[in-house]
Amino acid sequence: MTVTETRAMLSVDAERSPGGRDRGPARKRRYTEDQVPLGRVLLRMLAGLVVLAIFILPYTIMFFGSVKTKAQIRSVDPTYFPTEWHWENYINMWSTPETPLPQNLISTIVISVFATLLVLLVALPAAYYTARFRFPGRMVFLFLVIVTQMLQPAVLTSGLFRQFATLGLIDTWAAMIFINAAFNLSFAVWIMHSFFAGIPKEVDEAAQIDGAGRLTVLFRINLPLVWPGIVTAIVFTFVACWNEFAASLVILSTAGNQPLSVALTKFVGQYETSWQYVFGVSIVAIVPVVILFMLIEKRLVGGLTAGSVK
Amino acid sequence: MSSTTDTSSNPAGAASGRPRPGGAGRAGNAPGGAARGKPGGRDLVKALPWIAPALALILGVVLFPAGVMFFNSTRDISQSGVDKGSVGFDNYVEVFSFPYFWPIFLRTIVWVVVVVVFTVLISLGIAQILNKAFPGRRIVRLVVIIPWAASVVMTTMVVYYGLEPYFGVINKFLVDVGLIDTPEGYGWTRNPMTAFIWSIVIAIFVSLPFTTYTILAGLATVPSDTIEAAKMDGASPARTYFTVVLPQLRGALSVAVLINIINVFNSLPILKVMTGSIPGYDADTIMTMIFKYIQNQHKVDVASALSVVAFLIVIVIVAVYVKVVKPTREV
């Protein structure tokens, strides 16, 4: 079903519904739909609860683990819940022999922040212009953007590794900032493109007739309207960079340069893994990005519809 | 920037006589709908300042490395990174003559197909639940996001810990409910087969949020009038779902499947954590094999050859998929 067809259906429905005969029953149905029987509501809540429990389970295990002592977490007969709550883990975990975690955290933050800024700086003008103006090669450009969306750093790692080695940028934050920005660019362009395309052109025209320049139109008229799209793009990009793994694994070889995602894997397969610290760091790394994602939850659906489900 | 009316670069669609479809979603409004006149070279020059930075990033950090990769796949590169000249297709010969290549290839297909199929089926169910009104739905919807936002490495590590013999809590739970006999548990992550199966479970789990949300977005576009009409015609809920709702989800599903195929094929962290410490090649996919060539064997040339193979596989999958399913993406 293409968008046009869907829309045609919608407009057919819109035309039909004001018609007299089926309006009455439809309204009645809707009324009863609101008055769902209590039993069914409880059933839905139960189903919702099951979904909630499944999705939160790994992170509950993580959290409980993060406050156990090493003896507790490696006990041969483990307890599901912590018997004592050792909050001091959240302080002690930053100095472990496996990897310099404070530096890993700084690394994650620096790479994510600068990659996100770069994406915004580069994607916003492109999204605006391709949504608003026609020029030769516009389709080629948008095709390139889609192609990048199909590609991921993982499949190009060997090429990236050689290229940045030649440039002398191997094992630097700069390399990962460029890589993260490049591979998240398409998503940002796409989402913001859709938001720009959604603003009626009449708005721009009216402003231009009133004598506003193109940049004025962009910053004063369009940006406030596409702000939700920009926030969505920022959050998506930031979270993706925050969690990036494959390229960082190969590009960043010095322990202190690596982001948390790579650094934490060093705990796996150790003779005596300090799982409580792994989980403490994981909780610290996960909570902020989960909150960010939840902030755009309402737009997540809309953003996705705009971005890909066309 | 000129503010005057330059006809050759008028705002796209400005002259459009078509009525704007109202309310049906702004997403699909063809940008540049019906601009007057053909855009010319001057328009490209005008566009460059706006798109050049993006273009530079795509060319420099995506397409150029891809070229480097293709080139390197025909070179002999020493462990220290010195290019020793062309070797033709020797690297490809090494890739294909590796005794574990075809098992790895088949395992990659199983990995992608099983994960994507189960992800979509389970997501359809979850989306159906989250699309109904009930108290607390908002909280459930928010919680469903967590595996999406959380690092896949970290999600995988908690499962890895949970499956550890003796002290893992998932293991203990399986012992407690009687699914495992031995109290010390089972070496889930020591055995390639079981580690791979658990990796599939994790991959499905972390793919659910995106898929569920995409389907929810699709469900939001299903006109409620149509569903009501089907109900009034006496269709059962199941029949309504399969004949009215599911066809409307076609667009959402095809995009979700496509993006999931690419993501799952390219997925590294889950298998890296779950099976990375198992010796041998009995739990590898093409993607983990590429990283074994780079990191363990320091053969960037052979890794490049395998990457090219992976790259072509992705292209073929996407092309076949787009040809067969015709996702409704319009530029």
From TrEMBL, chain A:
Keyword Cell membrane carried by entry: yes
Keyword Transmembrane helix: yes
Region (Disordered): 1-29
Any one Gene Ontology BP term: transmembrane transport
Cellular component terms per the entry's GO annotation: plasma membrane
Coiled coil: none
Keywords: Cell membrane, Membrane, Transmembrane, Transmembrane helix, Transport
Subcellular location: Cell membrane
Transmembrane annotation, as ranges: 41-61, 105-128, 140-161, 173-192, 225-255, 275-296
Domain ABC transmembrane type-1: residue ranges: 105-296
Membrane topology: Multi-pass membrane protein
Domain of life of the organism encoding this protein: Bacteria
Pfam families xrefs: BPD_transp_1
Basic and acidic residues: bias regions: 13-25
Family per similarity comment: Belongs to the binding-protein-dependent transport system permease family.
Record-given protein name: Sugar ABC transporter permease
Source organism: Agromyces mediolanus (Corynebacterium mediolanum)
TrEMBL record, chain B:
Family according to the record: Belongs to the binding-protein-dependent transport system permease family.
Major localization class: membrane
Keywords of the record: Cell membrane, Membrane, Transmembrane, Transmembrane helix, Transport
One cellular component (GO) term of this entry: plasma membrane
Biased composition (Polar residues): 1-10
Residue ranges of every copy of the ABC transmembrane type-1 domain listed in the record: 105-321
Gene3D superfamilies referenced in this protein's UniProt entry, alphabetically: MetI-like
Protein name: ABC transmembrane type-1 domain-containing protein
PANTHER family: BLL4140 PROTEIN (PTHR43227), DIACETYLCHITOBIOSE UPTAKE SYSTEM PERMEASE PROTEIN DASB (PTHR43227:SF8)
Ranges where the record places region Disordered: 1-38
Record InterPro entries: MetI-like, MetI-like_sf, UgpAE/MalFG_permease
Gly residues bias locations: 20-35
Subcellular locations according to the entry: Cell membrane
Topological category with respect to the lipid bilayer: Multi-pass membrane protein
